[in-house]
Write a structure and sequence with these properties.
Chain lengths: 261, 300
């Protein structure tokens, strides 16, 4: 039997409890992800996809239930402490990099994750060639712009950089929060291919929330469909390979999903 | 006469420049409008005043003032990070509390150092002999201290710890994903910033040889003006660090004030002029930015 990397069990979460806007999102939500799985999560607006990620990362506290990451119970642990084991890329491209710092500085700071940020020199000179080779793989020409501030990059370039930074020190779990949603179709595909490549090469357990049904179908080893705080479809392995976009749409035609783009 | 005026401008500009570098950390890097500065500048004066008045080493007094400023800055940070008080209010609280603290340290509202008190300037009075060059000795000492502070800050900003400080103001969320507590880094940044402000106060204490509990009023506005002059006017100069720009910004600022006073502006109107100058820099800054943005879109 495979090792369980992430276990969400009996999660309850209600927003605005006791007010007129009370919204019960999760009542007994369960999800288990095994080591090495690449899970694509799709679902309608308000289905709880992003809240699920926030509960895992510790940005939102669940009312009850447990979050177990690699055998360690994470309940009550602060978000920055959980981040030791978790990498994350956000929807907003400006959230994954420091705009006023250069590409080289950004990569150096990410490369130091898990170590102490002491009074030694911040730029990592030994690894400059490695950073350059990583950027070369993107084919975006960034390898010649190591000294450019990250804020001067386009959304797609920044998101690609953010993805490299989030996985530079291999996390136990990678959370992708609609990380291609704010990009144009071409950049979106570039970033998605890069995601697939990194996740496969480094064998990172990944939980990817997306609005793009096609991405969830084409990429990943497992697809999960959420609706109103529950899982209504969960396919993996051969079963997933044999399903087409129309199969997913058939299951879920009553909720609005942006199909491809 | 002119030479003396210029020396005076440079001396004051460089002393207050140390303070402006502190404001640069909070305002530009941390994006934290820190008003504690109006209290930590006189805190440096007070700590230094009492120490040199008791015959302690004037250099030790500078270090002690820096430490006291760091402690005060940490309180501002703790109010914000641990007690979740809004950042502007945190600075106001520290500033208000320091008024009493500063009064308590010296024991009265204002006092002067006696003429025979040993200061860093009395020790170095005859650095360049006792001829005409002697009038440059104070400036030389101030220059050494200011440059030491500047290079130390430049060096820190290039360390790993300095990188975190820069990223916390830039993108707090990224610091979280790096598994670091942004709150702690913010507190460290506020400590360093107010340490510098307090150090400036300590140098100013030995320069002006006086303590006045109300002398901090307007410090932050002065610092902000220098930071804005430094980060906009001098930004275009290649190969110049922002800290250098901020120091020059303070010199320019002090020059404006001195010229206005020399031209007959009544001393009680300086605060009014400070405000007008500040607004003018902001408006010009906005204008320059707009122009620059328009230029970019034309090029695109």
């Amino acid at each position: 039997m495979c090792r369980k990397m992430l276990e969400l069990s009996d999660i309850h979460k209600t927003f605005n409890r006791g007010t007129i806007d009370e919204k019960v999102l999760f009542s007994g939500f369960n999800l288990t992800i095994e080591d090495g799985e690449f899970v694509g999560v799709i679902g309608s607006n308000g289905s709880g996809k992003t809240t699920m990620l926030n509960i895992i990362s510790g940005d939102v506290a669940a009312d009850s239930g447990s979050v177990i990451l690699d055998g360690v119970k994470m309940n009550g642990m602060k978000n920055f402490k959980r981040a030791k084991k978790i990498g994350r890329v956000f929807q907003n491209p400006s959230m994954g990099t420091c705009p006023s710092m250069t590409i080289w500085e950004n990569m150096s700071i990410a490369d130091n994750k898990g170590k102490t940020y002491d009074l030694s020199f911040g730029l990592n000179r030994q690894r400059k060639d490695f950073y350059r080779s990583q950027l070369e793989l993107l084919g975006l020409g960034l390898e010649n712009r190591l000294s450019a501030p990250a804020g001067s990059l386009s959304g797609g370039q920044r998101q690609a950089l953010a993805l490299i930074m989030a996985t530079m020190i291999r996390p136990d779990l990678l959370l992708l929060d609609e990380h291609t949603a704010a990009l144009d179709p071409k950049s979106s595909d570039t970033v998605m291919m890069l995601t697939e490549k990194i996740v496969r090469e480094k064998n990172i357990t990944t939980l990817m929330v997306t609005h793009n049904l096609r991405h969830a179908v084409e990429y990943g080893t497992r697809a999960v469909m959420m609706h109103e705080g529950g899982i209504i479809m969960d396919v993996s392995g051969e079963e997933k390979k044999n399903k087409s976009i129309s199969d997913y749409l058939k299951v879920f035609n009553e909720i609005s999903i942006e199909c491809g783009n | 006469m002119i030479e003396g005026l210029i020396i005076g401008i440079l001396e004051q500009g460089l002393i207050y420049g140390i303070m402006a570098m502190g404001v640069y950390i909070t305002y530009t890097i941390l994006d934290f409008p820190d008003l504690s500065v109006d209290g930590t500048f006189p805190l440096g004066i007070a700590v230094c005043f009492v120490m040199v008045n008791h015959g302690l080493s004037p250099w030790l007094a500078l270090i002690a003032a820096f430490a006291a400023g760091c402690a005060a800055g940490m309180f501002t940070g703790l109010f914000n990070v641990k007690l979740k008080i809004r950042n502007l209010l945190c600075g106001i609280l520290t500033m208000t509390a320091l008024y009493s603290v500063n009064y308590g340290i010296v024991g009265k509202a204002s006092d002067f150092l006696s003429m025979d008190t040993t200061t860093i300037f009395s020790q170095t009075e005859f650095l360049f002999g006792n001829g005409h060059m002697a009038m440059y000795s104070k400036l030389a000492v101030i220059l050494v201290i200011t440059l030491a502070a500047k290079f130390a800050l430049d060096w820190y900003m290039r360390t790993k710890s300095g990188f975190l400080l820069r990223s916390v103001g830039d993108n707090e969320g990224l610091v979280v994903t790096l598994a670091k507590n942004p709150g702690t880094i913010k507190i460290i940044g506020l400590a360093i910033a107010n340490g510098l402000v307090s150090l400036a106060g300590a140098v100013y204490c030995q320069y002006g040889r006086a303590f006045n509990v109300g002398s901090g009023t307007g410090t932050v506005v002065m610092g902000l003006a220098a930071v804005i002059i430094g980060t906009t006017v001098f930004r275009k100069v290649k190969f110049m660090r922002i800290t250098t720009g901020v120091l020059l910004g303070m010199v320019v600022y002090k020059a404006c004030i001195s010229v206005a006073l020399a031209a007959g502006l009544p001393a009680q109107n300086t605060n009014l002029m400070i405000t007008l100058l500040f607004i003018a820099t902001l408006v010009i800054n906005e204008f320059v930015l707009k122009k620059r943005k328009a230029g970019v879109s034309k090029n695109a």
